[in-house]
Amino acid sequence: MTEMSGEKDKIREQLSAYLDGELSDEEARCVEAALKSDSELQAELDELRRVREMVGSLSSSQAPEGFVERVMARAERERLMAGDDSQSHRGGPLRWARLLATAAVLLVAAGAGLVLI
Amino acid sequence: MTDGASNIVTGRQGDVSSSARAIAFEDASLVQRCRDGDLRGFEALVAKYQHRLYNALYRMTGRSDDAEELAQDAFLKALEKLDSFAGRSSFYTWLYRIAVNLTISRRRREGRIRFQPLTVGDDDFDRSQAAELSARKRQNGNPGPAAMAESAEAAGRLTDALERLDDEYRIVVVLRDIEGMDYAQIAEVLELPAGTVKSRLHRGRCMLREMLSDLA
Q1: Residue in B31, B54, B61 to test binding to A, most A beta-carbons within 10 Å
Q2: Using CA atoms, how far apart are residues A88 and B195, in angstroms rounded to an integer?
Q3: Closest CB from B149, B183, B213 relative to A22
Q4: How far is residue A65 CA from its own chain's centroid?
Q5: ipTM surpasses cut 0.85
Q6: Angle, nearest 10°, between helix axes A39-56 and B194-213?
Q7: Please, are residues B173 and A20 in contact by the beta-carbon 8 Å criterion?
Q8: d(Cα B212, Cα B173) in Å, to the nearest integer?
Q9: Which of A74, B37, B58, B153 sits CB 3.0–4.6 Å from A92 for a disulfide?
């Protein structure tokens, strides 16, 4: 009796995976054989199927409006704060802007130096 | 998640497999643009996966503000770590792994996580929790399961039941039954053995059944 109950528990543990088609052919055959002769297991399978359907039927929530813009703003900010090291190796648009700004500052500084001399 | 989307994830059908390949190719191309310093590639990935990731995180956390913050953090972490993305898994699987890890870390930090040992046997099933929930259900009174899925109130109760699951069970249920991932993908995202995924999912569904099916 205990042995039979242990076997039934093993089958019971496989029910979700059976439902999801995640058992090997041999395992699936064992579950199917047990289901045929055990209405209690069949009822459990049906209940698990309903649970799965109910969870799957929950409506999808959409990301709030402006989500992409907020992520991109954070990405830009974090890149600037990090000194944009990774970007600077790759010639991205921010790098060129920074190079131009640096060149302008150097030119002004050089010009000021000449005037002082 | 729709069946179609689910099939794209699992690649069960021939035409769906080619769709999955097309998606993987498109993602790889966007990832490469990011690596080349083109933030528009990253923006396209955010736009593409924002709703899916947000929805999964919303179901995992039960809070819209947490879901948005975690989704933002996950995308930014992905951008930061893009060089370590080897492309062995798909981009979205990798992104989900980052998001789930952030979620677990955060909830653990906030003391909102209740993890059980990885190998949970029948005896470890939280019977006191199930009994408490059953008692609460009897107090509330319930419609049948089929009617439940059709009403807003039912969706609320189901959401509530999901939230009451321990994180280790809820996350697996969300990834399987809402995201439509197969066991191998879930194992990859959570970095767990497939057998653990299988037992957690079964246990999670059994707990939901306990919470929702005793409908006198």
Answers
A1: B54
A2: 45
A3: B183
A4: 20
A5: no
A6: 90
A7: no
A8: 15
A9: B37
Residues 27-66 of A with CB under 8 A from B: 47-48, 50-64
Q: What does the DSSP 8-state code read for residue B126?
A: -
Q: What is the pLDDT of residue A52?
A: 94
Report H helices in chain B.
3-10, 14-35, 39-61, 64-80, 91-109, 127-140, 145-150, 152-164, 167-173, 183-190, 194-213
In this structure, are residues B179 and B172 in contact, taking their beta carbons and an 8 Å threshold? no
Distance CA A91, CA A80 (A): 15
The per-residue pLDDT for B120 is 34
Would you tell me which residues 152-181 of chain B have a C-beta closer than 8 angstroms to some C-beta of chain A? 154-155, 158-159, 162, 173, 176-178
pLDDT of residue A95: 56
Predicted confidence band of residue B46 (pLDDT cuts 50, 70, 90): very high
Model confidence, pTM: 0.70
pLDDT at residue A66 in the model: 96
